[in-house]
Amino acid sequence: MRIEIWSDVVCPWCYIGKRRLEKALGSFPGKEDVEIVWRSFQLDPSAPAIPVETVAESLGRKYGGGVEGGKQMIDRVEAVAAEEGLLFRHHASLRVSTVDAHRVLHLALETGGPELQGRLKEALLAAYFIETENVADHDTLARIAVAAGLDEARVRAVLATDEYADAVEADVREAAALGATGVPFYVVDRKYGISGAQSPEVFADVLEKAWNEAHPKLDLVGGGDADACGPDGCAI
Amino acid sequence: MRIEIWSDVVCPWCYIGKRRLEKALGSFPGKEDVEIVWRSFQLDPSAPAIPVETVAESLGRKYGGGVEGGKQMIDRVEAVAAEEGLLFRHHASLRVSTVDAHRVLHLALETGGPELQGRLKEALLAAYFIETENVADHDTLARIAVAAGLDEARVRAVLATDEYADAVEADVREAAALGATGVPFYVVDRKYGISGAQSPEVFADVLEKAWNEAHPKLDLVGGGDADACGPDGCAI
Prior knowledge:
Order of helices and strands of chain A: EHEHHHHHHEEHEEE
Largest sheet of chain A: 4 strands, mixed
Number of helices of chain A: 8
Strand content of chain A: 5-15%
Oligomer: homodimer
Helix content of chain A: 40-55%
Domain DSBA-like thioredoxin (chains A, B): 3-207
Number of strands of chain A: 7
Number of domains of chain A: 1
GO molecular function (chains A, B): oxidoreductase activity
Protein name (chains A, B): DsbA family oxidoreductase
Organism (chains A, B): Nocardioides marmoriginsengisoli
CATH topology of chain A: Glutaredoxin
Structural class of chain A: alpha+beta
Shape of chain A: elongated
Largest interface: A-B, 55 and 56 residues
CATH superfamily of chain A: Glutaredoxin
């Protein structure tokens, strides 16, 4: 089974949804056969590579109320994150571009498969939401990526060029084609879509459903009486 | 889309079914995305590596009527083959083991993918049913395989050992697990089974059905109101 998750590194509900899916997977009997691939989504493509404000400041500016108003808007998501064991400091997160982080996530998938990519995704989310690191900064990205197990020279080479930018764009286009208007957006075996940080129970139900369908009895088509050859000879 | 076809090199309905499937594929809009993999099936595992009789002689011996009786049994399948443009001389085909041919078909798949394997499968069927060649003979197999594009040294090395014998056995076991009692047996996307040389119309229907299911609209699970982040911000 394959779960593709469209997600952004700066999306709080994506990190919360990750924990809820992990909770569902923890008690799912088929978990060894579940492969998770992280897909790129840019919530805020106009966010700068060099930060000029925090998310709280940005929200306060956009919706009014200043930095205090922005912090209040973040309070609820921080409270929900805490219920999942995530001690966000999202009020202090920087508003930054995530395209470079996504390019490195593609490098991780290509060079180390879903396992390496999964480690990097977790590390980037933790860096952004808990450590309030600047995940657009190339030195920061390289440090996080190398700690997750990527090759530093390859990471630096990707960051110095626009490698994987087309893969990031392709992911964003595909999300739209699949009907995703926001993230997290989960696609199970290209069959089921799940929008938003749903409860572990919703994830568990879909996992079980998809699992049963991935191990089907064949549906025999066209009847069993067409000419064929068998152990007792051919229909000749 | 992936079509796996369990088939034997000495199975007349398999060759006829191949033409019927090809007819259906010829007018199928998604044909560029269809991959065909040939799986091994041994109709007559006790057939000798060194031939001692023709198929007509074998049938006459088994069902009575001698070689003439055997030939009459083959008449119908030759007539149906002719309708598909196949000028069988099956009455003169030798009763031989096909395990070595199947081992080389596995080599073709592993080294050259479905395209090379497909060329070899067609060549082996033509050699057996039209040229009445001995497809158990190693020199004959090597000549056919090399003409199809395989590397002669690798073919000879496989024939000199029991390489891929386990793969042949695994295919045979899998056919039984999927419910196939004879061949040709077609499995489309591990979802639909088709038993026997069905008509092009049956194949066309299954191709269309499987195609639509391989390009699904996602089934959105759990409702659309879970917390998420979108272009206008996060639900915070």
